[in-house]
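Sample intake sheet
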Amino acid sequence: MLRILGKASSINVRKVLWTCAELTLPFELEEWGSGFKPTDTPAFLALNPNAMVPVIQDEDFTLWESNTIIRYLATRHGANALYPAEARARARVDQWIDWQASDLNSAWRYAFLSLVRRSPQHQDHQALHAACLQWSHCMEILERQLQTTGGYVAGPHFSLADIPIGLSVNRWLETPYDRPSLPAVDDYYQRLKERPGFRRYGANGTP
């Protein structure tokens, strides 16, 4: 059985858990990270030198980095509906997965740590204002994409890209700040809430 090392409050771990739900793939979750087993031990560092979750072990194969993991699982289990085999369709999915990992993640990080986690190191008002503006800008990019597709982020049908993007939309909606009105994003979120995997693993992940 697939072994997942991480904690369900982590947005990156929840990508993997939701993917497993979409694939109806059984797994065992071992809780590692802050509040659970430490990730800075020699045993864990041998699995992931970055000391971060998630890590999976699939038989004798160990893998870290959440977006790589979800791509691997979809490919290994032949989930072409989630992760197309055709090059251009797959590239479109990859484009949005990578955008979430780079631009969108960078945009929301400071605001989330400040407003949700209440981190003392993230309470500079000027930096928070700039972060909120950048986050809103990224979400407006997503709004325009969803207006174009009329369905999901990479096209009219749910794909692997909607897992990291959907979790980020959840984070956006549950972070208390003055957000712009984005009706296509709101409609998209309602569609995601119809999926059992999202209903189980879509929470904001506050400690």
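Comment: The chain is about 55% helix and 10% strand. The chain has a mean pLDDT of 95.
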